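Still learning. Show one?

>
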Amino acid sequence: MRILGLGGSHHDFAACLVEDGRIVAAVEEERLTRVKIAFGLGPRLQRCLAADYVLAEAGLGPEDVDLIVANDFLNPVYSLRYRDRIEWIGHHLSHAASTFYTSPFQRAAVMVMDGRGSEVERDGERHGETISFYTGDARGLTLLRGLTGRIATAEQRLDDTYENSIGWMYEAVSKEIGFFTVGGMGAPGKTMGLAPYGTPRYVEALAGLYDLADGDFRQSLAQQEAVRALIAGELARADGTEAAEQVRADFAYAVQANTERIVVELARWLHRETGATDLCLAGGVALNSVANHLILRETPFERVHIVPAAGDNGTAIGAALHGHYALGGHPWAPAAGLFSPYLGRLHDAEEVEAAVAARADRLTVERPEDLCATVARELADGAVVGWFQGRSEIGPRALGNRSILADPRDPGMKDRINAKVKHREAFRPFAPVVLEERQTEYFASAVPAYYMLLVPQVRPDKRAVIPAVTHVDGSARLQTATPELNPRLCELLGAFDRLTGVPVLLNTSFNDNEEPIVESPEDALRCFLSTDLDVLVLHDLVIRKAAA
């Protein structure tokens, strides 16, 4: 049985192909259009390139698909080509399916938290999903409780105000303190990075602008307007640029601290209701890696699984898997191994060599006998390396196949990459990737973080050893490398360890600021030649820029 899942909302469009319960391929539309989160494409959105991509990976056409599933919050333009064949399901159900059916759990509690999902009617008014709780087991997913929020405007717009949404609150604060991404959307990732530079002075004020009870988060339209007014007023009163920057940092701290409080309390309630020891998370709020780690530390849940594409892109995976298990009637059983996020197509050697040949006059190329030893030496000598291997990873985090890698021991490396390669704000941190068997030597957590969605502390005695990946509060957004998922990345880490005694590398996404992660060899070469990357590794080729 072949099932095509389409995902997204008004952004983060994606497609996934599942065959007999196995994910054949999944990719985000942004990787193909080269437009961040595929927002604002207009009529071009109906091309639905991601669907063609995943079908081509299996040598199929649309006529070979048995079932097409999508969530009903998806921009209808994205589904125009398939509109007469689609089975529509709820947005939060798609999220829940994406994380439970990719988990290793026989039975789990499931929590979905985002900005807003499917529209429902409550007492004659328009509401949108905001928080949903499920249980998952061999029978599938069962909704335990769903929270919704009243929508304040008649049109679906990016600035819609909707009640009872953790995602809205975080994004609203991000916008008010000046963090935007494409199309005027907020940039919560920047807020999370800035939060450790702040102080607690606004934590209680923000906490007074929502209500939290057992399994219930409420924030009225009036409270939401008060959030905006509070930030605007404090910024207006700030005396000078430095004071205004501190206000912004303090509100980043406040919204992060309150989000952590809310998420932990909701998780505690869910545990009391279900008695489950395992928890699955999805929705945009599940990309808050700091809050995710606190769930493990401060609730009775023993294990947590977060699908790497926790945002709206992951609803493509959820839709396809729901099609297999729920609509197709197949019983759920966890896979024997870890869920692999490497779901893009494999670009073969001929394609790589053709892309290189097209720019031969600007490059020098070698194929070393020992690739990882050669690259490890470059890294140890201070090179910033674009690392392109195998199939691209799904989701917003680079997990070692479309990564920029560097030496974490260099205290100036963070500033150098932010300024010269990524062209972004200086405060934004970079993540470490570590060999699984060496994780506890460097980080105060034994829990593997295969998808870079947990933030533990760096051990105090190691912070001076790996300063480039240690945030100002001593934390790090960790990736755990295991040969089961990425043997070549582990081989490179081992080679770097043999040279330096440190089994850790700085790992960030292979892209320039405000552009999608590279997908193809052509994308990688374009980014390499337009930034201050020192070395590019395309499969087994080591590429440098030719002397001018």
